[in-house]
Design a protein that fits this description.
By secondary structure, the protein is of the alpha/beta class. It is about 40% helix and about 15% strand. It has a six-stranded parallel β-sheet. It has a three-stranded parallel β-sheet with strand order 3-2-4, sandwiched between helices. The longest helix is centred in the N-terminal third of the chain and has 21 residues. The structure holds NADPH dihydro-nicotinamide-adenine-dinucleotide phosphate (NDP) and 5,10-Methenyltetrahydrofolate. 5,10-Methenyltetrahydrofolate binds next to helix 2, strand 4 and helix 9. One of its GO terms (molecular function) is methenyltetrahydrofolate cyclohydrolase activity.
């Protein structure tokens, strides 16, 4: 079997157009959607991601407030900065770029953003809502994963899904959403201590790879006809690699294109969530 590839570029473009028109409508109604982007330290990769997010926002008409804080900021000062953004009524969404320098406690920082402005969907209240029949804010990469599955008409209900990785941004929330009462899949979470990785993968209808371990999943681990989504990123020899070996395309029925990053979906879903929260505030 040769896999069909999800058309991430076409989906991304459609999402961009949709966001442009929603932002225009909001502005006509007198609300300027405004995203505060908080960057701590000067990690070059984080800086690149943040500048891409700014470009995306500018393209659709979302205002941006970029806040760059010193690498050596204390936890208390960072919390204070976030509180200030949270109280600023001109700001409709807040994103703190991860990872934070190791002396800072990410969980506490993410909890300081009120759930109504939490565009990453990483506040504990929003995370818990992923398990319910009506999730509030779905973290952007997970929202992208869900959207590509839906777009291809793939049904999750009752399916065996393996999620490789239990990270804060992708694997953890993906497992909560897909196993929850809105999507109703049977989910197995795999991590470094998992003993039977190959067996679990081989028994799965859908595989979500979010480990950041280059080509960990090879075609012998995948059932014929499985659906495989790879969002993992690593740079083992300087160039970007996914978690899934390209030859998996010979056995899968649907797969993310091996030569494309999933980043476009993550970025477009961030815009969508910023607009969702801005619209909700008007409705509230
Ligand atoms: N394309 C995109 O748009 C985006 C991509 N990403 C990428 O997605 C991946 C996941 O990110 P994030 O959710 O932050 O997770 P983390 O990078 O924080 O964690 C990775 C997870 O994968 C597990 N893992 C790593 N290697 C292996 C292995 N060899 N076998 C089994 N499990 C393994 C780890 O297990 P353990 O818990 O035991 O350590 C951990 O749970 C990363 O590669 C990241 O770069 C993230 C955001 C957006
Ligand atoms: N609070 C927070 N929220 C995040 O959503 C978040 C984060 N922190 N920290 C880092 C990860 C990673 N992430 C990506 C965003 C865009 C691309 C992306 O745009 N990739 C390029 C290609 C890859 C590249 O060139 O590196 C593209 O698709 O064009 C990738 C990955 C969001 N993350």
């Amino acid at each position: 079997m040769a896999a069909r590839f999800f058309d991430l570029d076409a989906l991304g473009l459609a999402l961009l157009e949709e966001s442009k028109s929603r932002a225009a409508t909001l502005r006509q109604q007198g609300t300027i959607p405004c995203l505060a982007l908080v960057e701590v330290g000067d990690d070059p990769q984080s800086a690149t991601y943040v500048s891409r997010k700014i470009e995306d926002c500018e393209k659709v008409g979302i205002a941006v407030r970029k806040i760059v804080l010193s690498e050596s900021i204390t936890q208390a000062d960072l919390l204070e900065q976030i509180l200030r953004l949270d109280e600023d009524s001109a700001i409709t969404g807040i994103l703190v770029q991860l990872p934070l320098p190791t002396h800072l406690e990410e969980g506490q920082v993410l909890q300081a953003i009120s759930a109504e402005k939490d565009v990453d969907g990483l506040h504990p209240v929003n995370l818990l809502s992923l398990t319910t029949s009506d999730p509030s804010v779905i973290p952007c990469t997970v929202r992208g994963i869900d959207a590509v599955l839906q777009q291809a008409g793939l049904v999750l209900e009752g399916a065996n899904v393996a999620v490789l990785g239990r990270g804060r941004l992708v694997g953890g929330p993906a497992a909560l959403l897909l196993s929850g009462k809105s999507r109703n899949a049977t989910v197995t979470i795999l991590h470094r201590k998992s003993r039977n990785l190959k067996n679990v993968l081989k028994n799965s209808d859908v595989i979500i790879a979010a480990a950041g371990s280059a080509h960990l999943i090879t075609s012998d681990m995948v059932r014929s006809g499985a659906v495989v989504i790879d969002v993992g990123m690593s740079w083992p020899e300087g160039s970007l690699q996914g978690d899934v070996h390209p030859a998996v395309a010979d056995v899968a029925s649907w797969m993310t294109p091996p030569d494309r990053s999933f980043g476009v979906m993550t970025r477009m879903m961030l815009l969508k969530t910023v607009l969702d929260l801005a619209e909700k505030r008007i409705a509230a």
